[in-house]
Design a protein that fits this description.
The complex is a heterodimer.
Chain A: H1 2-25, H2 34-56, H3 59-75, H4 83-103, H5 123-134, H6 138-148, H7 154-161, H8 165-185, H9 190-193
Helix pairs in contact in A: 2-3, 2-4, 2-6, 3-4, 4-7, 6-8, 7-8
Chain B: H1 9-18, H2 23-31, H3 33-52, H4 60-79, H5 81-106, H6 108-118, H7 122-153, H8 156-161
Helix pairs in contact in B: 1-3, 2-3, 5-7
The chains are: A mainly alpha, B mainly alpha.
C-alpha cells in the first residue's frame, strides 16, 4: 500500500517536472519586461510611425511595419544597449523591412492621403507641398527624414540604411536640392516657405 | 558653399531647430543656395512631423502580446524540432520501405515459381521468411513512429476534433 502511494507521488512529481520543463522550453524570451517596453514604446513609436508613414506613403504599411519592427526588436538577442542605441537598432529593423517590401515590389512608395494631417493654417498649401514630397523616390524620402527630422548624422544614416557614408552625403544633397526645387515650383508659397 | 553643400549647414540647422537665428546667419541663408534649400526642406519636413503627431498608433499592450505570442511560437518550434526531424525521417523511411515492398510483392509470383523451378531447401525458405518478417516489422515500426510524431505535432484544435484531450 505504501509502495503504491510512493509510486503515485513519484508519478505526480514526474508529470509536474515535465510540465515545468515544457513551460520553460516555450517561455517567451524578450529583451525587456512589459513596463520597460511600454515606456520605450511611448517614446519611440511616434517618430518611427511618422518615418514609416512618410517613406512608405501608406498608413496600413506603416502600421504593419511598426508592429513588426517592435516584435523583431523584442525577440532579438542583443547585447546591453542604452535607449538611443536600441532606438537606432529599431530604425535599422524598420529600414530592413522597408527594403524587403521594395524588393518584393509591393506598393511602398505610392502614397495615399494621410488622414487628419492637413490641419495647419493653410491646408491647401500643405497638400501641395506634400504632393511635391511624394514625387521623391522612397530612398530620397528616407534620407531626408532621417537627416532633418530624426537629426541623424551621415554615419548613423549609413548604418541604418546600409549605404556608404560617402554615398549618403551625395544622395542626401541631391535629394534635398530636388525637394527644394519641387517646393519652389509650387506657386504662391515661395515667400512663406523660406520665411525663417 | 562646396559641391555637396555649405560648411555652415549644421549651424543653420541647429539655429533653425532652436528658433534662434542670428541676423548674421540669416544674411548668410539669404545668399547661400545650399542653406536656402536646407531651411526650406527642413522646415517643411518638421511641419510634416508635427502633423503626424496626431495620428492614432497601435496600443503598446497589443504589440507586446503579439511579440510574446510570436516568441512562444518560435520557442515551441525550437523545442519540437527533434520530434519533427524524427517524424520526417520516419516518413521518408516508410515511403522507401513501402515502395520496396510494393516492388517485392509484384515480383512474388516469379519468386514463388522460382521455388518450384529450383526446388529450394527448407533452410533457404526459413531465411527468406525471417528477412520478410524483419522487413515488414521494421516498416511497421517506422510507420508507427511517423503516425505518433504526426499526432504529437497536430495542433490542439485538430486533436480535439479527433476526440482526444489536449496535450497541454
Amino acid at each position: 500500500m505504501r509502495a503504491e502511494t510512493r509510486i503515485r507521488a513519484a508519478r505526480v512529481e514526474l508529470v509536474a517536472e515535465t510540465s515545468r520543463s515544457i513551460d520553460e522550453a516555450v517561455e517567451p524570451r524578450l529583451i525587456m519586461d512589459e513596463d520597460a517596453f511600454r515606456r520605450f514604446y511611448e517614446r519611440t513609436a511616434r517618430p518611427l510611425f511618422a518615418y514609416l508613414l512618410q517613406v512608405s506613403g501608406r498608413r496600413h504599411i506603416a502600421d504593419d511595419l511598426l508592429q513588426e519592427s517592435y516584435c523583431r526588436l523584442l525577440s532579438a538577442k542583443l547585447p546591453a544597449m542604452d535607449e538611443a542605441q536600441t532606438k537606432s537598432y529599431l530604425f535599422q529593423i524598420a529600414n530592413n523591412l522597408l527594403r524587403d517590401r521594395w524588393r518584393r515590389s509591393e506598393d511602398v512608395g505610392r502614397t495615399e492621403p494621410i488622414e487628419g494631417s492637413s490641419s495647419g493654417p493653410n491646408p491647401e498649401l500643405q497638400t501641395d507641398m506634400r504632393r511635391a514630397f511624394e514625387q521623391l523616390k522612397p530612398r530620397e524620402r528616407q534620407l531626408l527624414w532621417l537627416a532633418y527630422v530624426e537629426g541623424a548624422n551621415h554615419k548613423e544614416i549609413a548604418d541604418s540604411t546600409g549605404l556608404r557614408t560617402g554615398s549618403v552625403k551625395l544622395l542626401l544633397f541631391r535629394a534635398r536640392r530636388k525637394l527644394a526645387d519641387l517646393l519652389r515650383c509650387n506657386p504662391a508659397d515661395s515667400k512663406e516657405k523660406v520665411n525663417v | 558653399m562646396n559641391d555637396f553643400g555649405c560648411g555652415k549647414e549644421n549651424q543653420v540647422l541647429e539655429a533653425q531647430r532652436s528658433d534662434e537665428i542670428s541676423p548674421e546667419l540669416m544674411n548668410h541663408v539669404a545668399t547661400c543656395a545650399a542653406c536656402t534649400d536646407l531651411v526650406l526642406v527642413s522646415k517643411f519636413l518638421q511641419s510634416e512631423a508635427e502633423n503626424v503627431r496626431e495620428a492614432a498608433l497601435p496600443d503598446a499592450g497589443l504589440v507586446w502580446r503579439k511579440a510574446q505570442l510570436r516568441s512562444r511560437h518560435e520557442a515551441l518550434a525550437r523545442a519540437t524540432w527533434p520530434i519533427r526531424f524524427v517524424g520526417g525521417v520516419a516518413a521518408l523511411a516508410s515511403v522507401v520501405v513501402g515502395l520496396w515492398l510494393v516492388f517485392s510483392v509484384t515480383e512474388l509470383p516469379t519468386w514463388l515459381s522460382d521455388i518450384g523451378n529450383y526446388g529450394l531447401q527448407a533452410e533457404h525458405l526459413w531465411r527468406g521468411y525471417w528477412a520478410e518478417v524483419a522487413l515488414r516489422g521494421g516498416a511497421g515500426i517506422l510507420l508507427c513512429a511517423f503516425l505518433g510524431s504526426l499526432y504529437v505535432l497536430l495542433p490542439d484544435n485538430a486533436r480535439m476534433r479527433l476526440g482526444r484531450p489536449s496535450l497541454s
